[in-house]
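Inputs:
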Amino acid sequence: EDEAFLAAFQARIDAEEKIEPNDPMPEGYRRTLIRQIGQHAHSEIVGMLPEGNWITRAPSLRRKAALLAKVQDEGGHGLYLYSAAETLGVSREQMTEELLAGKAKYSSIFNYPTLTWADIGAIGWLVDGAAIMNQIPLCRCSYGPYARAMIRVCKEESFHQRQGYEIMMTLAQGTPGQKEMAQDALNRWWWPSLMMFGPHDSDSQHGDQSMRWKIKRFTNDELRQKFVDATVPQGEYLGLTFPDPELKWNDERGAYDFGAIDWDEFWRVVKGGGPMNRERLAARRKAWDDGAWVREAALAHAEKRRARREA
Ligand code: ACO
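Outputs:
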């Protein structure tokens, strides 16, 4: 890749042109997108597990229908994202095998257990709220297929966030026991939600280059701050307390100050040592193995049709 090519590519990015699948692109740009979109797709699919855990125990028909729809949406998001990554020359099989081999990551957040019904509220409110904050700017990502996939994803995430907040509102206004459940869920999900935005900018190895290529439009810390600022008033409205004694409005900055994230916990979970990592991967591996016959049958069928056409 010569300098003239890299400069011409950067000029297209700077002019806000969308890069499309058959356009020439630097190998690093392609690799970064495959990594990020692949991880994003895996997160959507693995993200179905913690909530799927509550579908059979949702407290009413209305709650069950909404949760079922939400978990299905997430399956759909995973499929659009795998398709977007496939436009870069990687197959879904390859991506899945990398996930199962522990080479590709998925979001740290899905390695925490869903212990009570209130966790479904907290996930919708906080986890989907964080996802929206991170994903709205991805609608303006320089890579066309990723940007376009994110538009529908974000609309659906917005419904997910509202269904979660509404669960929290109902619990927070319910019996003392229900309010306690909501508080306990906030206590357990708050810090992991802040970790979703990734390491501090100073430790974000891909951050600067992804910003230059306009894959990312904001840094990890910028998005984390926007999330805190948007979410704290929502928690106060619920009458709940955030598990951070240092959380405080800073008039000078026009933003909330907040306490230090436990980065040891973050890296432990990212590297596979979270409370549910083994279970999540085991569930994905089982689904992949159980589905092998479907993939084989589809291939055999396609092969037969091809042979018949050519005969
Ligand atoms: N969980 C797991 N891994 C993470 C997390 C996290 N919360 N945050 C960062 N990492 C990983 C990165 O993937 C990278 O590892 P890699 O080199 O093996 O890929 C490493 O930590 C260093 O991080 P960064 O250099 O900051 O990585 P990047 O520039 O890709 O930024 C971010 C990370 C913000 C998550 C980005 O990839 C992104 O915006 N992804 C798309 C959104 C997404 O994946 N959301 C999933 C969560 S929610 C949901 O979709 C339902």
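Remarks. The chain has 13 helices and two strands. The pocket of acetyl coenzyme *A is lined by residues 35-36, 39-40, 43-44, 47, 105, 107-108, 131, 134, 195-199, 204-207, 210, 220, 270 (CB under 6 Å).
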